[in-house]
Amino acid sequence: MSIRDIIRRSGRSIKSAKGRTILTALAIAVGTFALTLTLAASNGATAFVNKIIKDNFDPSELFVAADESLFGQGNTTKPREYDPSFGTSTTNAGASRQIKRITQEDIDKIKKVDGVESVREQIAVSARYITREGEKKYVATVAAYNPAQKPEFLAGNVNDFEGKKIILPEGYLQDLGFDSAQDAIGKNVEIVVPKTLTAEELRAQLLKGTLPTNADQLAQATDNNSEAIQFNIAAVSKKPITSQPGTELYIYTPGDEAKALNDITTQGTANYQKYNFVLVKVAGGTDDNKLKATQQKLKDLGFQVRSVEETQEFLTNIIGVLQGIVAGFGFIAIIASVFGIINTMYISVLQRTREIGLMKALGMRKRDIGRLFRFEAGWIGFLGGAIGSLAAIVLGSLLNPWITKQLDLGAGNNLLIFKPIQVAGLVLALIIISVLAGWLPSRKAAKLDPIEALRTE
Amino acid sequence: MVIMIKVDNVTKTYGKGENLFTALYKVSLEIPTASTNAIVGKSGSGKSTLMHIMSGLDHPSSGEVIIDGKALGEFKPKQMDAFRAEEMSFIFQAFFIEANQTCYQNVMLPLEIARVPKRDRAKKVKAALTAVGLEDKIDSLANNLSGGQKQRLAIARAIVNKPKIIFADEPTGNLDSATGEMIIKLLFDLNKKLKCTLVVVTHDPEIAEHCKNKIEMKDGEIISTTGIKHKRLGK
Ligand SMILES: Nc1ncnc2c1ncn2[C@@H]1O[C@H](COP(=O)(O)OP(=O)(O)O)[C@@H](O)[C@H]1O
Ligand SMILES: [Mg+2]
Fold first, then answer.
1. How many CB atoms lie within 10 A of CB A164?
2. Which of A36, A158, A184, B119 is within CB 3.0–4.6 Å of A389 for a Cys-Cys bond?
3. Cα(B53) to centroid(ligand 1), Å
């Protein structure tokens, strides 16, 4: 019998045992449903991460740090030797931690490395507050604007973004008393940053006799020392969809201004002109080989270096682990349904003993009889796969707009992305698994003795 | 006279030692081409066993079967299957048709097994169904046929690939006598038309009368024949 005829005949026996077939196929469909949705969610999450990365980072830049713990590496349970160049950094738990930072000397060293085009410091200054005449004070973080970022503007632009200018996030508009985004453009705001009292300032106050003598008051005076700077609003940015989490309300200013603010707040401290990260742009860095070569040279100098791609991989890996868990459950469901297929196929062989005997008597080969039942199992796998993936696609397509709204992903971003090639691959894999599950029952059919099978008594 | 089936000194035993049972004992027989033959005898006399061995479905414990000049014992399983698919066919007491398939699909089975080219199939199926008078039932489900029609369908399936030999094991056993007679008449008509060799196993003496040759069995041995010769060897 030709393969085609066998497939057709096995399809027909599936049809004649509808109830049994559907039930077995449904078991497979459950697993397929979970797997299809997992794959789709994985696609969506990966696409979303890629978009975040693309919208926030320049792939030809390398993150460079002096401290390995900044990339989540290194042993945090072992004390480290003190180094006077250590600055402090605040951890999530709120405790100050000493870490090694990139110094101006380091930056000069990095600039000399072959392939390095430019170096910019990653700066985010915690201002005391931002305010405007007649308005309340609001906490704010001022960060260096990175041209690789592509914020959407509600008003204004960054065509001439130099000097004391800022990009104000949409979220501040109302609180700072603006009627609209357009209203804010060209207006001034006051940003107040903390400032350490320098030795000269302390001496001046001492000479004037204004220096508090009480220890508490002295501490307060040093703590509250601030500097207020006027900034002009060049643009208002839309609430970002794909910003790094935690940076949604960052106020961006040109790199030099951010650096100047940073210098004010850190002057006289161990953190002065030291940076957690610098971003190193590699000449022709879109070429992976050039990027890797420079990365290696920086590593050889003792720096911690991570490319955008590696950061992306790190994020996608986390997603991958979560997806893996859900996929594992889907896989277990499919493994369980394999036993269903084996059982169903044994019943099918038993029910069709006579038919098998007749086909053998008529000269059908053992191999073809075996195939007949393996293909029947394959049909069940196909049905289960088709039902499960179709249900997942229909449900996913219906839910996508709702999920997008709930998770605030922004129009045009879907959490569930179905790829035809993946779905086809999954269904194909199910057919193969089912055919394998049909192996033992099909062997039983092939080995059947036709005389026994055709005995009438 | 050309010989189609030659059974040479065939013995068939089942079991071992104490349980040894001789179903056929030193049976020798020559069946001429295009003849009609009845194997008669009481239930348990070994008729079906002989038929199974003649058709290569079963292997003799000793002796050999030669069909159309070819010794079945020398065939590999694959060759035996191909030989059965092309040269012979079967009709059973219980019809063994697929109830939830159409007449067309039922009759198609031997053509698919014998790998008959697709373009020739429909024509052959129609011809076979016409020969048994079921041409208007071609797309009906086999389940909806009466008993006699079911056996006619089985006959259509048996003749569709123009076999050289048709083996029929109690073909009228499940039918009333009027329908049975009709089926027998149909079988003999087809035998004349198609010039195939017909071997009918039956315990109905009336059917046997219609056949040119008669082989009577008892306890695994041939006790008498009419029309053809046989060698009887005592136990
Ligand atoms: N597989 C077997 N094992 C043991 N005995 C068998 C087997 N097949 C048939 N027999 C015995 O062989 C004898 C002949 O059987 P069979 O050829 O079917 O008789 P008939 O067709 O004439 O009624 C019977 O007694 C039967 O019980
Ligand atoms: Mg019998």
1. 15
2. A36
3. 12
Protein residue with least CA distance to atom 27, ligand 1: B44
CB-nearest to B94 from A368, A451, A456 is A456
CA atoms of A252 and A237, how far apart (whole Å): 10
Cα A279 to Cα A258: distance, rounded to the nearest angstrom? 15
For ligand 1, atom 10, name the residue with the nearest CA: B23
Q: Cα–Cα distances in Å, from A324 out to A329, B55, B136?
A: 9, 58, 59
Q: Are strands B197-201 and B165-169 parallel, antiparallel or unpaired?
A: parallel
> What is the total residue count of chain B?
235
Distance CA B170, CA B109 (A): 22
Please indicate, yes or no, whether the overall pTM of this predicted structure exceeds 0.80.
no
Q: Is B193 helix (H, G, I), strand (E, B) or coil?
A: helix
Per residue of chain A (457 residues), give pLDDT as tens: 889 999 998 888 888 888 888 889 999 999 899 889 988 988 888 888 887 777 778 888 888 888 777 776 666 677 777 776 666 665 555 556 677 888 888 899 888 888 888 898 888 888 889 999 888 999 999 998 887 777 788 888 888 888 999 999 988 999 999 999 899 999 999 999 988 777 777 788 888 887 777 878 877 777 778 888 999 999 998 876 666 667 788 899 998 899 999 998 888 777 888 888 888 888 887 788 888 889 888 889 888 888 888 877 877 788 888 778 877 888 888 888 889 999 999 999 998 898 999 999 999 999 999 999 999 999 999 999 999 999 999 999 999 888 888 877 776 778 888 999 999 999 999 999 999 999 999 999 999 999 988 885 5
Query: What's the length of chain A?
Result: 457
Q: DSSP state, A275?
A: B
Beta bridge partners of B167: B90, B199
**Model ipTM?**
0.92
| Extents of the domains making up chain A | 3-52+314-455, 123-274
Tell me if B165 sits within 8 A of B87, measured CB to CB: yes
Touching B: A residues 327-366, CB under 8 Å: 354-355, 357-366
| Full set of structural domains in chain B with CATH | 35-52+75-228 (3.40.50.300)
DSSP B29: E
Alpha-carbon distance of A454 to B93, in angstroms, equals 10
Chain A hits for B57, CB-CB cut-off 8 Å, are 360-361, 450-451
